[in-house]
């Protein structure tokens, strides 16, 4: 797993072991960011169910001014922090140890206006998309 584009292009990222999280493939990341590429610069990016943090880190690498990572798994949080350290993007990030479902129900009090929110529910034990607001 690696950063696809931007100032951290090619940087290898670490992922949590086991099946509790499943990293988004490079192909899916590339497709997502090709679709939203003109809206990333200077945005605040919310990465729900952040896992390794690869999606939010990709946004930072491509010019987002801040990424907020929401993750409940402690091993995944360690990976996010390590990946931010490796990419030297830690000053542009907030890592929040919280259940992302609760964030959807009880939004965070953030000092930033969010432009783009993502969620990646494709991991073991994930709820179905129908339980979440499709606008996120």
TL;DR?
The chain has 136 residues and is an alpha/beta fold. It has helices spanning 26-40, 54-61, 74-87, 100-105; strands spanning 44-48, 66-71, 93-97, 116-119.
Describe the global form: globular
Task: Compute the number of strand runs.
Answer: 4
CATH architecture annotation name of the domain at 26-120: 3-Layer(aba) Sandwich
Helical proportion?
25-40%
- Mean pLDDT over all positions: 82
> What fold name stands as the CATH topology of the domain at 26-120?
Rossmann fold
Main beta sheet = 4 strands, parallel
Order of SSEs, N→C? HEHEHEHE
The structure class reads: alpha/beta
Q: Compute the gyration radius: what is it?
A: 14 Å
CATH superfamily of the domain at 26-120: Vaccinia Virus protein VP39
Low-pLDDT sequence parts: 121-136
CATH class of the domain at 26-120, anyone?
Alpha Beta
Strand order of the largest sheet: 3-2-1-4
The fraction of residues assigned to DSSP E strands is 5-15%
Terminal residue distance: 25 Å
Count of separate DSSP helical elements: 4
């Amino acid at each position: 797993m690696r950063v696809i584009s931007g100032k951290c292009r090619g940087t290898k990222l670490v992922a949590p072991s086991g099946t509790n999280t499943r990293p988004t493939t490079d192909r899916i990341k590339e497709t997502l960011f090709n679709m939203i590429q003109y809206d990333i610069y200077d945005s605040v990016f919310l990465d729900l169910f952040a896992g390794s943090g690869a999606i939010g880190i990709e946004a930072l690498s491509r010019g987002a001014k801040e990424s907020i990572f929401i993750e409940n798994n402690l091993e995944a949080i360690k990976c996010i922090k390590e990946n931010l350290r490796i990419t030297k993007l830690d000053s542009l990030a907030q890592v929040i140890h919280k259940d992302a479902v609760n964030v959807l129900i009880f939004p965070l009090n953030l000092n930033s206006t969010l432009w783009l929110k993502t969620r990646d529910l494709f991991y073991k034990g994930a709820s179905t998309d129908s339980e979440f607001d499709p606008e996120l």
